[in-house]
Amino acid sequence: MSSQNQNQSQGQTQVPSLDALLNSGRKEEVFASVKASLHNCLSETNLQLTVPGLKSKTRGKVRDIYDSGDYLVLVTTDRQSAFDRILASIPFKGQVLNETSLWWFNRTRHMIPSAVLSVPDKNVTIAKKCS
């Protein structure tokens, strides 16, 4: 039995690498799938409409910040900015930026405390308000 079949029989699905997909004759299928996903950018947020207790929203160049009293909800969007202008949206940019920030907060927590309390989503950080 192949390792892929063994993994599937154990409830695990083997995901082929991107190189394997591109070299398998499925290149056009992969590119079409990527192109179809490009519209899934997080450019705007409206949490105040669905999350109770949010008092206000501040829209920055890249992050939308919601005030909930003692805490801030920071949503890192896919907006790309330069020279104080929003230029475009790049898929997954917000996730990469938020996760990079969290990596640094974790890496430096032995030197200085952080306001980060929770990360309920790859684009969202909940932080204490600093006084």
TrEMBL record:
Pathway: Purine metabolism; IMP biosynthesis via de novo pathway; 5-amino-1-(5-phospho-D-ribosyl)imidazole-4-carboxamide from 5-amino-1-(5-phospho-D-ribosyl)imidazole-4-carboxylate: step 1/2. PANTHER family: PHOSPHORIBOSYLAMINOIMIDAZOLE-SUCCINOCARBOXAMIDE SYNTHASE. The keyword ATP-binding applies. One of its GO terms (cellular component) is chloroplast stroma. It catalyses: 5-amino-1-(5-phospho-D-ribosyl)imidazole-4-carboxylate + L-aspartate + ATP = (2S)-2-[5-amino-1-(5-phospho-beta-D-ribosyl)imidazole-4-carboxamido]succinate + ADP + phosphate + 2 H(+). Residues 58-130 form the SAICAR synthetase/ADE2 N-terminal domain. Keywords: ATP-binding, Ligase, Nucleotide-binding, Purine biosynthesis. It comes from Gossypium harknessii. This is phosphoribosylaminoimidazolesuccinocarboxamide synthase. It comes from the Eukaryota.
